UniProtKB/TrEMBL annotation:
Keywords annotated in UniProt: Periplasm
Domain of life per record: Bacteria
Protein name: ABC transporter substrate-binding protein
Amino acid sequence: MKRYKALTWDHPRGYNALVAAAGLPALAEAGIAIEWDRQPLEGFESHPIADLCGRYDLVVLDHPHVGEAVKSACLRPLEEVFGQESVAELEADSIGPSLASYRFGGAHWALPLDAATQVMALRADLLAAPVPVTWDEVTRLSKETGKVALSLAGPHAILSFLSIAAAFGEPPAEADPDVLVSERMGEKVYELMLDLAARSPAAVRDMNPIGILGHMAQHDDVLMCPLIYGYVNYAVPSDGHPIAFHNAPRAVVGGRPGSTLGGTGIGISRRCEVTPALRNHLLWLMSTKAQIGFIPAHDGQPSRREAWHDPDVNARWNGFYLDTANTLETAYVRPRHDGYIAFQGKASALLRQAFETRAAAKDTLSTLQKLYSGYRDTGGER
């Protein structure tokens, strides 16, 4: 029996389907066993990928880690394991940039197990007005109710900043990789977030997305969060009120829903001995049968486009997938160079402090750009 050690993140969406799949009789019959360990969400977002790959054969990661992984040469490229043709087929079948986001340095580095992006979450039973579509409508609802929350804890302050810039027509660091955002755009986004942060309910200020959604399901003091990573589990919760998920806000009706891609992929470490049986199991997880049937049935969030449009899947999960698919198809992909993860954490802390002290936009954005340039130039050594 060939045994593999694997690591995922500690939430039912992150481990239930993987653990259930590892228990299928077909694996034992093929002569392999996979043991899935878990790490907290915060570790998943920030733990050095090379350290994890030194201890595990399979590692669930998110795409901003790929630059760090390539520099440390700790992952196997998918092309090496599955071949160019299989990877191309997977990319064509994956929703939005779910697989493309793991491409860096001329190769792909993780299988898109799970697709997610920031979307709008709200308590439909508490909303008396139509669902907001634009950021002006979000601001109006915030002023009228005081119940519109921003997700700012951990890396999420800068992620929301990036998303809003994309919605207003300037996807960060795309036109010029050395410039995060222009001064004009940065000030526009900062002032919008500063205004919303001032009224964001204090009860959820320090919570990650899971905490905010859990709070919304149980309490009535948060009506909406305009940008939060979608968790299908909360669309039909086992306890509390259901959360309705919709496309992320836009600058104007018909515009791009600004959202920063999330989701997770399965990386194969250099220490892993890839047998035909393991290869087949990983490809099965990406298959139509698993993505439409097995993974949603075990609390997972599939990455295959046809699963997001499947009527049975949507009927089971209250339309979560169809109501947010447009946002995922157009989601913004973060920079992935080595050093970006460190920048992300520092930048979010900077923004939270600036919102707290109501710091001037010009000074905050100047510091933000210097921070970005420093981590980009030094490869994350600071």
